[in-house]
Specification:
Arc Repressor Mutant, subunit A; 6 helices; single chain; elongated; mainly alpha
Amino acid sequence: MMPLNDRAARGFADRLANHAAADGLSPIAGRLFATFLLSDRPQSLDALAAALGVSKASVSTEARHLFERGIVERVSVAGDRRDYYELAPDFFAQVIRARVVRWRRIQRLVADMRESSPALPAAVRDRFASIDDIHDAVVPEIEGALDRWERGARAGKSGSKAPSRRRRTA
């Protein structure tokens, strides 16, 4: 794991903490995510707490949140009974899928409002129509791209992970 006392790593973690907060996660979850991104091996809760300078209970709670979102996986290390965590191979696809789920919820709320209040002002109907139009154009494309990516990953186009866009040279 790249130490968070490294200036670049600390800045990266701080910026991800801000992004996590904007996405409804805690800043600690963002810093934890950064730590996983910078780590080349599974991490114990003890090591994560020390790296972040927070309590083990806080790290455990936030690791569980990332686990529930499919971003990290719990793994075992031979000869050690502690829980270890590492990024799931498809962690970024999980982040994108979670965002699509939120977009679908917003679009459903708009549809429900339209159905329950048919006498909405024209400006509101126009806004709702814009949400529908963008949703209908963008969300299926993102889901299709993720499905193609997953099919490629399952087909083993680049080992057990996602298909790479880079060309391999001998």
